[in-house]
Structure formats: structure tokens, C-alpha cells
Amino acid sequence: MTAALDPGALARLRANFCGDDAEVRSIVASYLAEVPALLHALRQAAQRGDRRGSRRPAHTLKSLSETVGASELSRLAVELEAWANGEASLDDPLAHIGRAEESFALVRPSLLLQAGGPS
Amino acid sequence: MTRYLIVDDSPTARLALSCAVRNADPGRGDISEAADPERGLASFRDAPPDVVFLDMVMDDRGGLAGLDTLRAMLRARPQTRIVLVTSLPPEHPDLISAIGEGAFGHIRKPVRTEAIRVLLHEVEAESGRLGRIR
Asked: Hey, is A105 helix, strand or coil?
């Protein structure tokens, strides 16, 4: 496990959904498939200076990352969502998105292992 | 059998919620899913559900999609219980408006089976007071 992934998160995911391992694996696999598109949409919107267009991918990234315990990525998404909503400023939104991409790259191997996919 | 409809544009969120609902109501529910408000409304009209789980923040319309969908569903079938699924804070104006306009309640993302179970008991209790949902 990396620091970017909350060590107890997947156990909590299993407990919170009262589900079996197959359910947890399918949720994690779906997360791994969905996040790259969210990060891509965020980057594209930010490159256009389109805060409003950043809102939905940041919002979704925040809650999905919290679901699987990618706490660092969730925290970065909270800040990006606040920026997208005009509630906070970021010196360099694209650099912030870069940190989110790095954070995803860090958690991805651990989550792939949990999902039962190739590492 | 209770009919559920989940409207959320995130496949992962739909999957997680579907798991939570299935585990909260084992063997008794029929769950449909829709990936956007338009398909959600179409499904709502084709096979009216008893309970809708509606994401409040969908597409790029800044949260209006959730409210618009709620209003259209309530106009079409007021007796359906519509539950907002959101990570918006409880004091968010969209959430306050939605509750004021007739949403049954809201649950926080990430969803938890226990929260769904409590909510379904509330739906059941209210249905008992007001007569069955259908």
C-alpha cells in the first residue's frame, strides 16, 4: 500500500457495502476504468480556463476517490472542485491536476491488486 | 417487490449504489439504472419506480440537471420517493431547494448500505402512514 491509499479503505468499503469480495473488486475495477477520463476532462477544461466545465469531473473524482480510499486524490479533487466553483483560488490549476494524476498513478498498482487485475 | 431507479452519470457510483441497495434490500428489489437525466426520465416513465436515487451533480449544467430531473419526476408521479445522492453539504442551496420541492431525503456519498437500510425503513414507514406506494 502506498501513502496515497488509505490502508483501511478497502476493508471499510467491504464493510460499508456489506458486500462480498467480488462486489468490492468490481467497484475498484470500475473506479480504475473511470478515473483517467475524469482526469482528462479536468485537464482539458482547465487548459481552456473553463472552471464550470471542471466542476463535474472534480466533484465525481472527489467522491469516487473517497469511496475507494484514495484519500490524497480525494483531497486534491476537493481543492479542484472549490476552484471550479469559484470558492477558492489555485496558483496553478494545471499543476494541481498534475499532482492528482501523480496521485492516481501511485494508488493504481495497489488498487489493481485489489481488483484482481494485472499489476 | 420494490422498484428502484438509480440515476447517476458515473458508472462507478451507479455500481456502488446498486451494491448498497441490493445488500440493504436482499432479494426484494428490482434495480434499474440510467446514466443521464434524459434516460432517467425515460426509464421513470416507462416503468415507474417506487424509489429513485438521484445524483444531484450531473453533466456540465452546474447542478441544475439534478433539480430539473427531480421536478420532472415529481410532476409525472408525485408518489415516487426521490432520494438525492450527493456529496454536496446539507446547507447547499440546490439541496435545500430540492428538499423544499418534494425530495424524500438525501444520503451522502460515499453511500453506505446501513444508510440505505435506514432510509428504506423511513420510506416503508411513511408508505404505511400514507397508504402503500403503489
From this structure: helix
Q: How is residue A118 written as a grid cell?
A: 494485472
pLDDT tens string B57-112: 876 554 447 788 899 999 999 999 999 998 888 888 888 989 999 999 999 888 88
Q: What are the chain B neighbours of A26 within 8 Å (beta carbons)? A: 15, 19
- Please, which residues bridge with residue B82 across strands? B52
Distance CA B77, CA B75 (A): 6
The contacts of residue A93 (CB under 8 Å, 6+ apart) are: A46, A54, A80, A83
On whether any CB of chain B is under 8 Å from the CB of A31, the answer is yes
Please give the single-letter amino acid code of residue B30.
D
Residues of B with Cβ-Cβ distance to A56 under 8 angstroms: 9, 57-60
Query: pTM of the prediction?
Result: 0.89
Burial level of B7, CB count in 10 A (0-12/13-18/19+)? buried
Q: Inspect the interface and report whether the beta carbons of A27 and B23 lie closer than 8 Å.
A: no
- C-alpha A33/C-alpha A41 separation (Å) is 14
Q: Are A88 and A82 in contact (CB under 8 A)?
A: yes
Taking a C-beta distance cutoff of 8 angstroms, is the pair B69, B5 a contact? no
ipTM of predicted assembly, 2 dp: 0.89
Angle between helices B11-24 and A9-17 (to 10 degrees): 50
